[in-house]
Amino acid sequence: MENIVSLNDVAVTFDGETILNKINLDIRDKEFVTLLGPSGCGKTTTLRIIGGFLKPDSGDVMFEGKRINDLPPYKRNVNTVFQKYALFPHLNVFENIAFGLRVKKLSEDEIKTRVGEMLKLVNLSGFEKRNIQNLSGGQQQRVAIARALVNRPKVLLLDEPLGALDLKLRKEMQTELKNMQQSLEITFIYVTHDQEEALTMSDTVVVMKDGNILQVGAPVDIYNEPKNAFVADFIGESNILDGIMLRDRLVQFCGHEFECVDSGFGENTFVDVVIRPEDITLAPPENQKIKGIVRSVTFKGVHYEMVVDTADFSWLIHSTRAAQVDSEVGISFGPDDIHIMHKMEG
Amino acid sequence: MKKNKGLIQKLTAAPYLVWMAVFVIVPLIMVAYFAFVTDGGEITAEYIKEAGQYGGIFWRSVWMAAVATVICLIISYPVAYILSRMEVKIQSTMLMLVMLPMWMNFLLRTYAWMTLLGNEGVINSLLGLIGLGPFKMLNTQGAVVLGMVYNYIPYMILPLYSVMVKIDGSVLEAAQDLGCGRLKTVVRVVVPLSLPGIMSGITMVFVPAISTFVISRMLGGGGNLLIGDLIEMQFLGNAYNPNLGAAISLVLMVMVLIIMTVMRQFDTGDDERVLL
Predict the structure, then answer these.
(1) What is the sign, positive or negative, of the torsion defined by CA atoms of A74, A78, A79, A81?
(2) Does the structure show a pLDDT above 80 at B269?
(3) A-contacting residues in B 254-273 (Cβ below 8 Å)
(4) Cβ pair B178:A89 closer than 8 A
(5) Between A74, A86, A103, which is nearest B168 by CB?
(6) Has residue B87 been placed in a domain?
(7) Is position B97 within any domain?
(8) Which residues between 133 and 172 in chain A have a beta carbon less than 8 angstroms from any beta carbon of chain B?
(9) Residues 73-92 of B with CB under 8 A from A
(10) Spatial separation of the C-alpha atoms in residues A77 and A73, rounded to whole Å
(11) Chain B neighbors of A151, CB-CB under 8 A
(12) What range does the domain containing B84 cover?
């Protein structure tokens, strides 16, 4: 597959503050790519650069192999679904969607056909004459998507489009968006701070922090093989402990030595040890290296979330069986469940 | 309980109603009374007919006020737009600069233009230095229109600005995203969204401009009488005839009402009225 959008050494600073720190990113054609990170990580800035609303201070923005740094937004074959939809309040549903086509001066017949197709796609047929203000958040959201897609862009940019919707609607829209992306075969670049959303929808997830790209990969790889403790923590919840890699396949933390499967960290190196809460099983305290007292048990629907305090760490554990609060339990995990990561610089 | 609440509401509204009655309704009735009733107490349409003789002055007033309003709109629109897109901190400073001339006395401001525009005024003197002129600028219709534009332009900028500042930047970005260059964005998005501001700006410039008498007196000389001058002459001037003055005022009011109603028809049913 070919790269449709590439960012080469793109840097942005505002008032001396670094927003993007020379990032490099290649986005392949027809892919669903998610830029994921906490607020202020530079994900929206990255999107605005691709959309043309912001010029990078340095670096190249490439679109289908051509440098487009100086191309204004209205000349780019890219459309955006804005965070708060940014629909035109003076136009009805039909005219909002038709806006881009009218600017291009298409014939009335073609506009009608294409807007009609879009309304069908986003399940809003019959809403043509509705006033924008009288639509629900979910419906406005659909209009915004239709308004962008009707122009048949090569790349659709989505800036936290589901942020304002309630949980159930958000799940529905996630599926719908993914289906649209697959049936239309358009590249989607999606910005979110919701890791679950990112994992569900994407072909590729780009994890960002403080203007840097930390990791790029398929959702499964990012979840299973996070590059560092930050990614591990951001993608799902984690127990992150300080540890020392004694030698290949042997790590020490919590005052004990554990066998693990990682190697290549050298000898006696300080590392982050990450253990997912769902990988831990509670066992009788006897025979376990790590023992602790159950501090809290919270019912989460599918599982219980428990906090277990040991001498020097507070463990987060997910299990389908609840333990007694204040009882002593043993914490058990296998060598596979221990993920060793380099300490983050800084 | 509910009845009580209604009573309280009525009571609190009472001072306002009294004020309205004494200072708006009663004077209106008095104007109508003087326009239709002679000193002897007879009802007559004579004064209205007499007012009709001044059709030329009515026409000139409408025309000059309209020209001044259009010029105000043309100048103010880009100013208000640029203003509304500036940084918030700079916006308040710039707004104050727009308002600043309004702190100075109206007469003084207009008088200043006399010294600028006169045959031996500042502008002609400067032009004389490079061998041009003198040009007759004072006591022309142009000078009157200039005076109107100068004095009333803040009343155009402010309502335009207050509407434009509410237009979300992301809506403008959406327009660009969908293929609009700068000009197309303004035509397709900014203008329709600022229509309420355009309407109230036009009202706030046109109405005072059509009834002004100070500006035409000071900058127009004797030759460019407006309705305002005519009315003033009937009440305070040599032509003393309050009945005729009342009749002209009435005709003027009806005219403004008709013009404004016609204008409203262009306003495409947007409910939001913006009044400062």
Answers:
(1) negative
(2) no
(3) 270
(4) no
(5) A86
(6) yes
(7) yes
(8) 147-148, 151
(9) none
(10) 9
(11) 178-179
(12) 60-232
Domain assignment present for B41: no
Kindly report the nearest CA distance between residue B33 and chain A, in angstroms.
45
d(CA B164, CA B166): 5
Chain B interface includes A335 (CB < 8 A): no
Q: β-pairing, A239-247 with A204-209? A: unpaired
Q: What is the C-alpha to C-alpha distance for residues A100 and B210, in angstroms, rounded to an integer? A: 42
Asked if B80 contacts B187 with a C-beta cutoff of 8 angstroms, the reply is no
- Looking at every residue in chain B, the average pLDDT score rounds to 88
The two three-digit tokens of residue A261, written as one number: 């499967």
**Half-sphere exposure (Cβ direction) of A142: Cα atoms closer than 13 Å:** 22
Query: Residue B223 belongs to a domain with what CATH number?
Result: 1.10.3720.10
| Interface membership of B94 toward A (CB under 8 Å) | no
Confidence check on the interface: ipTM exceeds 0.85, yes or no:
no
Distance in angstroms (rounded) separating the CA atoms of residues A90 and B171:
11
pLDDT for B13 = 86
Provide the 3-class DSSP secondary structure of residue A39: coil
Q: How far apart are CA A66 and CA A58, in angstroms?
A: 16
Q: pLDDT tens-digit profile of A5-25?
A: 999 999 999 988 999 999 999
Interface touch A89/B177, C-beta < 8 Å: no
Query: B115 near B108, Cβ under 8 Å?
Result: no
Partners of A151 in the beta sheet?
Answer: none
- CA within 13 Å, CB half, A187: 23
Range B111-136 average pLDDT: 87
Q: How far is CA A185 from CA A2, A117, A231, A237, in A?
A: 14, 16, 29, 33
**CB atoms < 10 A from the CB of B169, how many?**
11
Tokens of A268: 């006696």
Q: List the beta bridge partners of residue A281.
A: A332
* More confident of the two residues A64 and B133: A64
Domain parsing of chain A, residue ranges: 3-229, 237-342
Q: Residue B196's closest CA among B153, B169, B164?
A: B164
Instruction: In whole angstroms, give the CA distance from residue A270 to residue A246.
Output: 9
How large a percentage of chain B has pLDDT more than 90?
49
| A15 and B CB contact within 8 Å | no
Q: Which tokens belong to B137?
A: 């600028």
| pLDDT tens digits for range B142-170 | 999 999 999 999 999 999 999 999 999 99
Q: Which residues contact B72 (CB under 8 A, 6 or more apart)?
A: B149, B152, B153, B156, B201, B205
Q: Which of 90-109 (A) contact B at CB < 8 A?
A: 90, 99-100, 103-104
CATH topology match: A3-229 vs A237-342: no
Which residue in the block uniquely carries the two structure tokens 């959406």?
B174
Across residues B123-130, what is the average pLDDT? 88
pLDDT, greater one: B237 or A86: A86
Nearest CA in chain B to A99: B178
Burial of A298 (0-12, 13-18, 19+ CB in 10 A): exposed
- The verdict on B52 touching A (C-beta cutoff 8 Å) is no
- CATH architecture of the region A237-342: Beta Barrel (2.40)
**Which of A75, A76, A77, A99 best tests the B interface by mutation, with the highest count of B CBs <10 A?**
A99
Q: d(Cα A181, Cα A30) in Å, to the nearest integer?
A: 8
Topology of domain A3-229, per CATH?
Answer: Rossmann fold (3.40.50)
